[in-house]
Design goal:
Layout: E1 2-5, E2 8-11, H1 25-46
Antiparallel strand pairs: 1-2
């Protein structure tokens, strides 16, 4: 997922895309959801 921040772009999915994830699928989905919420919170705070 790419999120536009001002003139730049922030890739918030890169940290969780591992070749072999150490997390269970539900945990991985929860981490991705938390990353998206964090990015949205940062976007709101920066405006």
């Amino acid at each position: 997922m790419m999120t536009t921040v001002g003139e730049g772009k922030l890739d918030i999915s890169g940290g969780f895309k591992l070749e072999r994830s150490p997390f269970e699928p539900a945990q991985e989905q929860a981490l991705e959801a938390r990353a998206e919420l964090l990015a949205l919170a940062l976007l709101v705070k920066c405006q």
